[in-house]
Design a protein that fits this description.
The protein is mostly beta strands and about 170 residues long. It contains 2 helices and 13 strands. It has a 6-stranded antiparallel beta sheet with strand order 1-2-3-10-5-8. A 4-stranded antiparallel beta sheet has the order 4-11-12-13, with no helix packed on it.
Length: about 170
C-alpha cells in the first residue's frame, strides 16, 4: 500500500505575471509515487489526484479545454464560479462536477475565502503519442507536450492539411 498524509505533501504555488491567475497545488499522486515521465502505466498511475487552493478574486488558469483528459472536481470549501460553454455557474462546498475532453472550462474564486477543491484527472500527460494538449479559446493558443514533459505554447492560423507537406 502507498500512503501519504496531506500535511506531508509539498504545496506548489504558481502566479501569472500580472496576478490574474494564482493557485496552490498539492500533487497527491506524485507524493504517492506517480512518475509522470514514465511510459510504464504502473509507474505513471491511471489517474492524478490534486488538492487545489485558489485565493480570493483569482482564477486557476485561462479558459481551456483538454484534448484527451477528463477531470472530476469536488469542492471542499469556499465558493467558486465555473465558466463553461453555457456561461458561469456558482459552486460551493460539497458540489461535484465533471469536464470531459473538448469541454472548455475555467475555475475562479468569487467568494470571500479561499476556494479549495480536489481534482481527479484520468489521463496523466505523457511525452509520447496520445498525450493531452490544451486549447485556449479566448486567445486561440494551444499547449502541446513534447519530449521531457515540457509544454510548448503555440498560436497559429487555420491551414490546409497538406500545407507545407508536398
Amino acid at each position: 500500500m502507498r500512503k501519504v498524509n496531506l500535511k506531508e505533501v509539498e504545496e506548489k504555488e504558481r502566479k501569472s505575471p500580472k496576478g490574474k491567475f494564482h493557485k496552490f497545488v498539492k500533487n497527491i499522486s506524485i507524493a504517492l509515487g506517480r512518475e509522470p515521465e514514465s511510459l510504464d502505466l504502473a509507474k505513471r498511475q491511471p489517474f492524478d489526484l490534486a488538492l487545489v487552493r485558489i485565493p480570493k478574486g483569482k482564477s486557476f488558469c485561462p479558459y481551456h479545454s483538454h484534448s484527451a483528459e477528463s477531470e472530476l472536481y469536488l469542492v471542499v470549501s469556499g465558493r467558486g464560479s465555473i465558466r463553461d460553454q453555457d456561461g458561469s455557474t456558482m459552486v460551493n462546498a460539497g458540489d461535484a462536477f465533471f469536464f470531459g475532453p473538448g469541454e472548455a472550462h475555467q475555475l475562479s474564486n468569487d467568494g470571500e475565502e479561499e476556494f479549495v477543491y480536489y481534482v481527479i484527472a484520468d489521463n496523466p500527460r505523457s511525452g509520447g503519442p496520445g498525450g493531452d494538449s490544451c486549447y485556449y479559446p479566448d486567445s486561440g493558443k494551444w499547449a502541446v507536450v513534447r519530449e521531457g514533459l515540457k509544454d510548448v505554447i503555440v498560436k497559429g492560423v487555420e491551414t490546409d492539411y497538406f500545407d507545407g507537406e508536398e
